[in-house]
Task: structure prediction
Amino acid sequence: MDGPDRAQERLQARAPETELIREAQAGSRAAFDALVRQYEQQVLRLALHLTGSEHDAEDIYQEAFLKAFRYIGNFRFECSFYTWIYRIVTNLCLDQLRRRKTRREDQAIMVDHSGDEIDMLATISDTRSFSNPGKELDRKVLGERIQAALSKLTPRERMVFELKHYQGLRLRTIGEMLNTTEETAKNTLFRATKKLRTQLAGLR
Amino acid sequence: MNCDLAHERIVLAAYAELLDEQAHELERHLATCSDCSQEREQLLALKTLATAYPVRELDPNFVARSRMRLDEALDAVPPKRWYERVGQRIMNSFSNLQAAPAAALLLLIVGAGAGAVGGFEYAQARAAHVAGRPQPSAKSDPQSPTSAEVAGVASVSSVVRQPNSEIVEVTYNQVVPRRVQGPLDDPDIRRLLMLASENPDSPGVRDDSVGLLADECRARHACNGEGIRDALMVALRYDRSETVREKALQGLEPFVAENMDVRNAVLEALLNDPDPRIRTSAISILEPVEGDTSVRQVLSTVANSDHNPHIRTVSREVLSRAPEIQ
Result:
C-alpha cells in the first residue's frame, strides 16, 4: 500500500502549495489548476474505488473541484489543503453511497464511462495464477464477493474502511475529514471489519 | 486486559494505530489467549482477502477526459465581481475578529467613536442650515476631515447630498492607531500578540510577537489556553520567515510529549521545512517521544531520504537510541 508515501509527498510539497493557495484565493486560475493537478489522481482513485463507476467518479471529481474553486476564499489554513479537499470529496462520495443505498443498487462490478464492465483484476499481475485461467476466474469472483461485502457496509463504515485500508490514512486524519473524533473513527473501523468478516466467512 | 478490549486493539494493531505500550500489552494477552490469537489470524486473513479488490491504477484517458470536462466547467464559472471579492475579504476579516475578541472590541469602539463624531457633525450642519447661517465650506470647517484623517478611512458607510445645496454628508469609519501597555500574561496583550503573529505585511512584527509568545510557553507561563499553542503551530507550518518558524518551534517544545497536535506540527516541520536548521531542531525536540509510532516512522523516513547528510545522520543516531519495539 502506498498511502504513507503519498502522505509524505504531500507534506514535502506543502511550502509551495501555500503560495498556490494564496494565489488561487486572489483569483489566479493558473494557481488553482496547479492545485487540481496535485490532487486529481488521488481524488479520482478514491472516488472510483468507492463508487465502482467511472461515470460517478468523474461527476464527484468535477463537483469537488468546482466547489473548491468557488469556496477557496473560505480556506483559512486551519487544516491542510489536502484535508480540506478530501473533506469535500468524502462528503460527495458519502452522498453518492447513500443515494445508492436508497436505490438499492448494489453494483458488484465496475463499469466504465460507456457502461461496459471492467475486469479490474485483470490489470493486477498475479504470479501464482498468470497461466491458470481457473485461478484468474477465482480471483475475479473473489474480488466481486469483496466488493459486494463492502457495499453492504453503511456509507460511513465503507468510507472509514476505504480511507484506512485502501488509502492508508491515519484514523486521526480520517476523523478530521469526516468531522468526527478519532475515537468514533476507531469504532467505525472496528464495526466495519467485524461486518466484513461475517460477510466473507467461508472464503478463507 | 479483557478479550473485548483485545479484539478492538487487534484491529488497531493491524493498521499500526496502537501505541507501543498498548501493543506490548496486547502481545502479552495474545500469548495466553487462544481465542484472541484466532481473532487476530482472522483479521489478518481479512486484510489479505481485501487486496483482491485493489485500488487500480487510473487509465490516462480517463484522467484526461475528466480534466477536460473540469476545465470546461471551470471556464463556465463567471469570474468573481469586485464586490464579491470585497465581501469575501470582509467575511474573512470578520472571522479573524471572531477569533480575536479584544481586537474586535477595539474596532467596535473606534467605529462607534467615528459614528458619534459623524452624528455630531451632522447635527451641527443641520443646526447651521436651519438657522440660515452661511454654510461653511468643507475646507474651512474645523470639524471636516483633514487629508491625514481621510487617509486613515477604513470604509464609507453612507453618502447623502443635502437637498438644494452643495453640502454632502459622508459617514465613514476610521482606523485610529492605539497603543496599549501591559504585562505579558495579560489576556488582552496576549490576544494582540496572537493577532500580530498573523500580520502578513510585517515579518518584524510577526518575529517579535511569536518570539514573545514562544518565551512565555517555554517558561510555562499559563500557555495552555487562549489559543497560543495554535498560533505557534500556524506560525511553524505557514510562516514565510525562517526566524519566525524557528521561534515557534522552540515555543512548542514543552508540549511535544503531551500533545499530539503539537507533535504532528513538529513532525510536519521535520519532513517539510525547507530550512535544515529547523529540521535539525525538530529532531532534537522529538527525541524524547518514544511512545508514538508516527515519530519513529517519520524519523526513519528522514534518516533514509532527507537530502541533507547531517540530518540523515542525526535521525539515525536518534533511531538507534530508541528501543526497537515493533
About this structure: The radius of gyration of chain B is 30 Å. Strands of chain B lie at 153-161, 168-174. The longest strand of chain B covers residues 153-161. Residues 189 and 246 of chain B are 22 Å apart (CA to CA).
